[in-house]
Amino acid sequence: MEQKTVLVVENHTDLQAAYTAIFSYDKYTIDIAATREEALKKLKHNEWDIVMFDMLYRGGINGIDLMETYKSDPTAASAKKHPVFIAIVDDEDQMDKIRELADEVFIMGEFTPGELLEKIQECLQKHREHQSAPAA
Description:
By secondary structure, the chain is α/β, with parallel strands linked by helices. It has a single domain (5-132), classed as Response regulator (Rossmann fold), CATH 3.40.50. It contains 6 helices and 5 strands. The chain has helices spanning 13-25, 36-45, 63-72, 74-77, 95-101, 113-132, and strands at 5-9, 29-33, 50-54, 84-89, 104-107. A 5-stranded parallel sheet has the order 2-1-3-4-5, with helices on both faces. The radius of gyration is 14 Å and the shape is globular.
């Protein structure tokens, strides 16, 4: 079985620890990015199965800006492996914009660790099927 990798983009240490525990339970290889610059560097230089991030940080990383910057980078478009982007949202005001940028959206406080892992497995499966489907 192939090792699954996840990059958690989170600047709060308590949430970093919680996500690390959740993903460790399901045997993911986990890395953390606590700043925008660190996240962009890790996105550019590593291959991830999942990238999970908070969309609207207060005084930290702006997930919308991060995703727009990453997705506009030509190296992202030409990467061999495209990750599944999971957004954690605590402010639903910009939901339409967030849905354009992320593959899946979770509302903070409305999911359990088990539900998160289950939904991520579904996203990975859909992503793999989409990647292996012949181009029309």
